[in-house]
Design brief:
alpha+beta; elongated; 4 helices; 25% helix
């Protein structure tokens, strides 16, 4: 399904320094593959994990407003008995888009509690 994956995971504590690579930097077609008739689209995923639920709604709202359809999950286990929360969402882009960069910037500015991670994966289809 994903013969070639452009994948970058930037795990940052809320409020930490910004990663140098932006999602749109990864959303560029490979010229050789495009010349052979391959069409690429991209899936941009964002996850925020925290042991605190307070403050997660702001980021969930940002993702909802931008079409990511985020889900909120909570877990606990024998190894980690305290509650752990995660907001996760993804959106597919047909071409490189700075909208993905803007969404990431908005989530960072919201300073949600916990750890922010994101990735871009390529989805290929033959013309």
């Amino acid at each position: 399904m994903f013969p070639r994956t452009a994948l970058l995971i930037a795990a940052l504590l809320a409020g930490a320094a910004h990663a140098a690579t932006l999602p749109s930097d990864l959303m560029l077609p490979v010229p050789e593959r495009a010349a052979r008739g391959y069409v690429e689209s991209w899936v941009f995923s964002i996850e925020i994990e925290s042991d605190k639920l307070t403050g997660m709604d702001a980021c969930r709202k940002i993702l909802t407003e931008r079409g990511f359809v985020p889900t909120l999950s909570k877990t606990a286990s024998t190894a980690a008995p305290s509650l752990h929360f995660k907001v996760a969402g993804h959106k597919e882009y047909a071409q490189a888009s700075t909208e993905a960069d803007d969404t990431l910037a908005a989530v960072r500015q919201a300073k949600c509690p916990g750890t922010l991670s994101w990735n871009v994966s390529v989805k290929q289809a033959r013309r």
